[in-house]
Design a protein that fits this description.
The protein is an alpha+beta fold. It is built from ten helices and nine strands. The relative contact order is 0.11.
Length: 375
């Protein structure tokens, strides 16, 4: 983990998470079969080891982005399900941390940090994915409260969350100006959740709001800005998770190449295999530096990081897709069998190029920043 962007405390944190992964995550072979049940179990387990505190900006103050990327890389190495639980807690809690009142932070962020509840960010809709400004979920005033009407889909923790942060249209203003962020207690009436089956094991679902009471989170009309800020802060974490998956794929490939014999000698002794392993390692190290640089800028320079976050997320997730694909190729027929580690990684890595904004969206963000800074 040693590099110029990390401090010793981050290296110590990595060792802590690694020990947690060896002890608690390696034996959890059944998480893939029931990701919803696993998520409910993993939330308190992560909290018990102090690993959810960084997800809620402890103590509801300044984010340590380098802690977030350190935790996500290590968790993803062992378990995509565990990483998804942590990453979803970060994304679900961020709007509360960024825009919530002290009372809202005290209630919900404390509950998340303790593992008492799972958070969920609900922004995507059947007709509003990358273009969040076209969201159709409505928020109407009803006396002292707001009521939500609409459907959100592809929501992590959708059927098991205790609290939702929801992007909804609160006025007739066009596009993003009419959007606000709302806080919804999952026990409120008018919530109809439905599970969705994903390519990899993931607690994914859909939520229908039917006159559901909600509380405004932050200022009216600021929901789009809050959502973008949350996504920006979470993107280096997605890149870190991609690095964790790629690191596991590389380690599995090295072990396989040293043990597997083809044409009377180990795969590791064949030049083509060595060239591929070298490429895998080099791309992984480059992605790690981009991820940690983005987190470092956020922590040390206290800077907005739209370009750095997008670059880290784009390069790391595309890199991980290539590395995992090469790992499957090195394993040959054994790599496509259900139950093989690289087969699981192959299914898990694909969603990361979409999660938190597609690769194409990241390119648009990077290009926008380049043109804005042009002289």
């Amino acid at each position: 983990m040693s590099d110029p962007f990390l401090e010793e405390r981050h290296n110590s944190l990595a060792l802590k998470v690694r020990a947690f992964g060896d002890k608690e995550l390696r034996p959890r072979a059944n998480d893939e079969a029931n990701p919803f049940g696993a998520a409910v179990e993993l939330g308190p387990l992560l909290a018990a080891h102090g690993l959810l505190a960084p997800a809620v900006l402890p103590p509801f103050g300044t984010m340590d982005a380098r802690s977030l990327v350190t935790i996500r890389e290590e968790l993803a190495y062992f378990s995509g399900v565990a990483d998804a639980v942590f990453g979803t807690q970060v994304l679900g809690a961020l709007p509360i941390a960024l825009a919530g009142s002290e009372a809202q932070k005290g209630r919900w962020l404390t509950a998340v940090m303790r593992g008492d509840t799972l958070a969920a960010l609900a922004v995507t809709e059947p007709e509003a994915g990358s273009d969040l400004s076209s969201a159709r979920t409505r928020a109407e005033r009803d006396g002292m409260v707001w009521r939500l009407e609409g459907v959100k889909t592809l929501i992590s923790h959708a059927t098991i969350a205790g609290v939702y942060t929801v992007l909804a249209r609160s006025s007739e203003a066009e596009g993003a100006r009419g959007l606000s962020m709302f806080l919804v207690d999952a026990e409120a009436p008018g919530i109809v959740p439905k599970r969705l089956e994903a390519l990899a094991a993931h607690a994914l679902g859909e939520v229908r709001f039917d006159a559901t009471p909600a509380v405004l989170l932050g200022d009216e009309g600021a929901g789009y800005r809050t959502t973008l800020a949350a996504l920006e802060l979470s993107r280096p974490g997605v890149g870190a998770a991609a690095c964790g998956l790629a690191a596991r794929a590389l380690d599995e490939s090295v072990r396989w190449a040293m043990a597997r014999r083809q044409f009377a000698r180990p795969l590791a002794h064949q030049q083509n295999t060595r060239l591929v392993l070298a490429e895998m390692r080099t791309e992984l190290e480059a992605a790690r530096l981009l991820v940690r640089r983005a987190a470092w800028r956020r922590d040390v320079e206290r800077a907005a990081i739209p370009r750095e976050a997008a670059e880290a997320k784009l390069f790391a997730t595309e890199m991980a897709q290539r590395v995992v694909d090469r790992a499957v190729q090195i394993h040959g027929g054994q790599g496509i069998l259900r139950g093989a580690t690289v087969e699981r990684l192959y299914r898990e890595v694909r969603a990361l190029r979409i999660d938190g904004g597609t690769s194409e969206v990241q390119k648009l963000v990077i290009a926008r920043e380049i043109l804005k800074d042009a002289r």
